[in-house]
Design goal:
Blueprint: E1 2-4, E2 10-14, H1 19-31, E3 36-39, H2 45-54, E4 58-63, E5 66-71, E6 77-81, H3 86-97, E7 101-106, H4 117-124, E8 129-133, E9 136-141, E10 147-152, H5 157-169, E11 174-179, H6 185-197, E12 201-204, E13 208-211, E14 219-221, H7 226-238, E15 242-246, H8 256-262, E16 266-269, E17 273-277, E18 285-287, H9 295-302, E19 307-312, H10 324-334, E20 338-342, E21 345-350, E22 357-359, H11 365-378, E23 380-382, H12 396-399
Parallel strand pairs: 2-15, 3-14, 6-7, 10-11, 18-19, 22-23
Antiparallel strand pairs: 1-23, 3-5, 4-5, 7-9, 8-9, 11-13, 12-13, 15-17, 16-17, 19-21, 20-21
Length: about 400
């Protein structure tokens, strides 16, 4: 068991490097013309999975927090293991559909339960062949003159991102038509940001238009991760502490600043830092449909408020590493808060009434981080902290 004694979280911390931005930079660098030096990388499980998936396309060297990626002639026969990295899986499946040769992509754990059917259907119309095997996906790629496809955007924004990467390989570029509500669209915008950095033309509108080829900018740096830093902000607030997190500027999920302020916490924002002080005081009603990775820290803060908070648009959480609707409620109920799910909304009522709970991570890194923050406030033990390494290996050094 990993156990934490209750204590205020006070200090200055460095934001963990953004996992989603690092993964996007790795794939863009592997597909680009010219070598790329990437700084500020943390070798979490998901970033390592992206490096493995890109290895058949490039020579990759790592030194500390820095990567050097030199593209080379792609191998014709490729086998990669993405383990449980959903983004890596979906991007690799797409790009290898547009590169001649045969690829086997192995998966493991909870990733095998996450939705891929519609996406595979789209790729099957593009690649020479795509076949689902138990625990693996076979992709036979071919050169593309152009790309014009529709894909569901209400299941995963990663479907759109994968096809954007594929579009850079098509000689005439690509047009992707998202169908349905656009979930987590900020991550599509993050993909666009990286592709533009590498010289692609990207237009985001009713249609997503992308044209390559990609050309290396020479160097790139990974920004800080707001969604992971949100757990530190939450822990500092619910413990009555104070935390200043440096290395935060742009990138997805910076809306956590507004959400924390709305709960009555004092927030100070500088050029590259965010500082919080004070406990959450007010319940909130928020639309979280574009911010699924912020639901866990926001729900935890809501559990420390006397009153009911409503977080809408969370039905998409069922498709994550765990069914995060259920597992988030599990953490909240273990600390004695009220939590219920009703037609796409998570309803949370505090304050907590229990201390020293035993938490389950449910094999989900964000549920682990949520539990660690709760334990820092109320004391408690966690059954298995290994999932934390998926996104932020150094997190436990902060919460302990």
């Amino acid at each position: 068991m990993y156990c934490v004694e209750p204590a205020p979280l006070i200090g200055e911390f460095r934001a963990p490097p953004s996992k989603p931005m690092a993964q996007r930079l790795v794939f863009a660098a592997a597909l680009a013309e010219g070598g790329t030096h990437i700084s500020g990388v943390e070798l979490s499980d998901d970033v390592v999975a992206a490096l493995r998936a890109a290895a058949p396309l490039a020579s990759i060297s790592a030194s500390g927090a820095e990567l050097t990626i030199e593209p080379r002639e792609p191998e014709r026969s490729r086998a990669v293991n993405v383990q449980e990295s959903g983004f890596t899986y979906r991007i690799a499946a797409a790009i290898y559909a547009g590169i001649p040769g045969r690829t086997v992509i192995y998966t493991s754990g909870t990733l095998r339960r996450r939705p891929m059917g519609d996406y595979i259907g789209v790729l099957s119309k593009v690649a020479a062949a795509v076949r689902e095997w138990p625990g693996a996906l076979y992709v036979e790629g071919r050169r593309l003159e152009s790309l014009e496809v529709e894909v569901r955007a209400d299941v995963s924004s990663q479907f759109v991102s994968g096809l954007m990467f594929l579009s850079t390989l098509a000689e005439g570029g690509g047009i992707v038509r998202p169908v349905g509500p656009r979930k987590s669209w900020q991550y599509v915008e993050a993909t666009a940001e990286v592709l533009r950095l590498f010289g692609a033309r990207v237009e985001l509108g009713d249609e997503v238009v992308v044209a390559g080829p990609l050309k290396s900018p020479g160097s790139a740096s990974v920004p800080g991760d707001y969604s992971l830093s949100a757990f530190v902000l939450a822990a500092a607030s619910i413990t009555g502490g104070r935390a200043r997190i440096g290395g935060l500027s742009g990138g997805p999920d910076k809306e956590i600043i507004d959400f924390v302020r709305e709960m009555g916490v004092d927030v100070r924002v500088g050029e590259d830092y965010v500082e919080v002080e004070g406990v959450p005081e007010r319940p909130v009603e928020l639309d979280m449909s574009s911010y699924p990775d912020l639901v866990m820290p926001v729900a935890l803060m809501a559990a420390f408020v006397d009153g009911e908070s409503v977080l809408r648009g969370v039905e998409h959480l069922a498709y994550k590493e765990s069914d995060r609707t259920s597992t988030t409620m599990d953490v909240l109920r273990r600390i004695g808060a009220s939590a219920a799910y009703d037609r796409g909304a998570l309803k949370v009522r505090g304050p907590p009434t229990r201390r020293n709970a035993t938490f389950s991570c449910h094999e989900d890194h964000r549920i682990c981080l949520m539990a660690a923050a709760a334990a820092r406030a109320l004391g408690g033990c966690i059954d298995d902290v290994a999932p934390v390494a998926k996104s932020w290996p150094g997190a436990l050094l902060i919460f302990s």
